[in-house]
Amino acid sequence: MYESLTRFIPLVEGDETYGVWFFDHEHTGTMDDPKQMPYVEYGRLAIDVEDAIYAFVNDHEEFGLRHYGDILERNGLKWGIESMEAADVSALDGRAVMALLVGAVRAERFCDGALLRFFQTGCIARWLRRLQELDDNRGAPASRA
Question: What's the pTM value of the predicted model, to 2 decimals?
Fold first, then answer.
């Protein structure tokens, strides 16, 4: 089910350049020569992962991922960098893990560099591995009790 996202695992785990911060060192910061605010220029991999996340949201309306904050809250998580980074995904279902991914992408709109931090701290890779685990378990035969 999550193959469109989990295909990025080897790339995400092997890439160290998800994006680069740019700081304006050329301008003085005066009214006549204003500085540009710092920003992150994301690499192709980060952009492709973000696009795949949005495509999943659009292709799976039944997940209700446009309400990712509510999904996170129902799973005892806050929509914030620290809470999301500390999330123990081992017991989360696919919907909750997808809410983490959507929350990470959406966080970038409010906090420059948030998505970069999620990549650099290994959260994106960890969340994608959990989705892979859920896919692997879905195909496994049920155990007999």
Answer: 0.87
